[in-house]
Amino acid sequence: MRVQVLQNQWLPDASATLESVERELRQAITRGTDFVVLPQHVLGDPARTPPDPERARRALEVLTHLAREREVYLATGSWLEHHEGRVVDVARVLDRTGRVCATVRRPHEGGAPVTGTDFPLLDTDKGRVGLLLGHDFWVMEPSRIQSLRGAHLVLVSGALGTRNRESKKAAIWGLATLHCVAVAFASTVGGGSTLALPQRLVAQADEAPGVLTAEWADDTMALQREADLSFKNTLWFGLWARRPELYAPLATAPTRSTEAA
Amino acid sequence: MKVGIVQTQWRADPTENVFFVYDQVEEICQGTALDLVCLPEFFLGPAWYMPGQAGLKGVTDTRIPGPVTTLFRALARKHRVHILLGSMVEELPDGGYCNTAVLLDRSGDIVGRAHKVHAFANEVVVCRPGDTVDVIDCELGRLGIAVCSDFWVPETIRMLALKGAHTVFIPGGSLKQNLDAMVNAFRATAFLNCVNLVYASPVGEITGMRGGRQIRVAFAGTSLAATPAGLLARGAEDGPDSLVVDLPALDVLTLRQRHADDDTWQGLGLRRPEAYGGVLEAFVGQGRDLVAETRTSMAQTTPTAAR
């Protein structure tokens, strides 16, 4: 399985950014690639690029063509659109024929961080895969739920940001380890795009734009998750040894006393 | 909160081992006003249900309270320090067993205990798991204890953080094959849950049969302390060690408040618990009865242990 993540740079104009993304992807997507992931706000700073239906249509058209031409699953990254009277940040996954097979919409609240309640899974010819957008990744539960429901790879259209940068870089691999799942995390200008398997960091970008590529055997995650009672391999344990009957507090709204704590 | 972490090295003679650990605690308390000393899982020596260790049955398991707690209660009183007796194989009054950590306060009183909730390896057959993940309110604030493999099920630390624990103590045992991933996972967990983590591990080796195969398990120390900002200290991989760290609870509680200068709060503060029913589901790929398989392999290799 070959996975690639784009770390792109915002140019002054969203159209120029899209052209740059297309050019970069055309150069980088190699034959046999299975998944390509683009970052959140791939076309530019959301504070400076208000929703534009024509731009959104054009971006989707370019990426659809690319997915179909290169026969890859392509997580489009996100951009702002109007949806049901609200401004939303939208991320999609296109399948190898260019068809939209997963969509995430998050309200755009002027740059304030938000997380969602839907964490889509898609069944691909390379197994079950999850899609996450933005801050959903930094809250542990969405990727945990996707992993528990059988995703062996989580595609993250994300942004690393500059605050707590080193801790966040560690957390990308850490979540792969703790959930026993592969993570493909694409980030924009701040850098830190990452490809991680549970047992190792496969590739990580610094701040320079470019495309990261990683390859692992199709059955890598299946083997990693297989219970091994010789305990030579142990990272499966966190999925198998769970006791969900004890975890109700995680799905319950906090009480006053815990909030105060 | 000033914390001492004692990384023990298993001696062949369990009695010698206890006094070796006792001396390590004495030593780390000399000249430093510690608030708490944390010991690893199985600081008394390997559990008798580990491969090749059946001869330790009745030797490294103990009643709680019992002679071991009595010994360390006196030490806690002497140094006016909390001691987390990492974990012991607790022999229960009805003949069952638990993997139990015990927290002693400065007076030597037992103020908290935690039974390992997520049984590892032969424990699924031999030990009774704990059924609660609770914080301990004590003089040092709200503390959590997660016994070794409890860390590897991330729901454990998540629940402790949500229940208000600012520092979670993890008596454990590092396996060499996962060492880099383990260290990074501790760091990531501290950040994602906005919590301090203190981890203590022994160094030592066991050999024996497991699943019909001769195996050797080497524990790799690497005790550590982490805050949401990163690793504070890391112990040796190949021998006993002692670490002293400062962990101000206030820092974590401040970080959990929403403010613009630092976004560490987001991992806890942006949660949407109403959408997390999926964590109450079992892993979809889980298709084997590991308890039955472990029971069979134990019966083949350590006949007395599996009864």
How would you summarize the topology of this molecule?
The complex is a heterodimer of chains A (261) and B (307).
Chain A: E1 2-7, H1 14-28, E2 35-37, H2 53-70, E3 73-83, E4 86-94, E5 100-107, E6 121-124, E7 127-133, H3 140-148, E8 153-157, H4 165-179, E9 182-186, E10 194-196, E11 201-204, E12 210-215, H5 220-225, H6 237-240, H7 256-260
Parallel strand pairs in A: 1-2, 2-3, 7-8, 8-9
Antiparallel strand pairs in A: 1-12, 3-4, 4-5, 6-7, 9-10, 10-11
Helix pairs in contact in A: 1-2
Chain B: E1 2-7, H1 14-29, E2 36-38, E3 61-62, H2 67-79, E4 82-91, E5 97-104, E6 110-115, H3 123-126, E7 135-138, E8 141-145, H4 155-162, E9 167-171, H5 179-192, E10 196-200, E11 203-210, E12 213-220, E13 224-227, E14 230-234, E15 241-246, H6 249-255, H7 266-269, H8 290-301
Parallel strand pairs in B: 1-2, 2-4, 3-4, 8-9, 9-10
Antiparallel strand pairs in B: 1-15, 4-5, 5-6, 7-8, 10-13, 11-12, 13-14
Helix pairs in contact in B: 1-2
Question: Summary?
Answer:
The complex is a heterodimer of chains A (261) and B (307). With 261 residues, chain A is α/β, with parallel strands linked by helices.
Characterise this structure:
Chain A is an alpha/beta fold. Chain A has helices at 14-28, 53-70, 140-148, 165-179, 220-225, 237-240, 256-260, and strands spanning 2-7, 35-37, 73-83, 86-94, 100-107, 121-124, 127-133, 153-157, 182-186, 194-196, 201-204, 210-215. Helix content of chain A is 28%, strand content 27%. Chain A has a 6-stranded mixed β-sheet with strand order 5-4-3-2-1-12, with helices on one face. A 6-stranded mixed β-sheet of chain A has the order 6-7-8-9-10-11, with helices on one face. The radius of gyration of chain A is 18 Å and the shape is globular. By secondary structure, chain B is α/β, with parallel strands linked by helices. Chain B is built from 8 helices and 15 strands. In chain B, strand 9 (167-171), helix 5 and strand 10 (196-200) form a beta-alpha-beta unit. Chain B is globular and about 60 Å long.
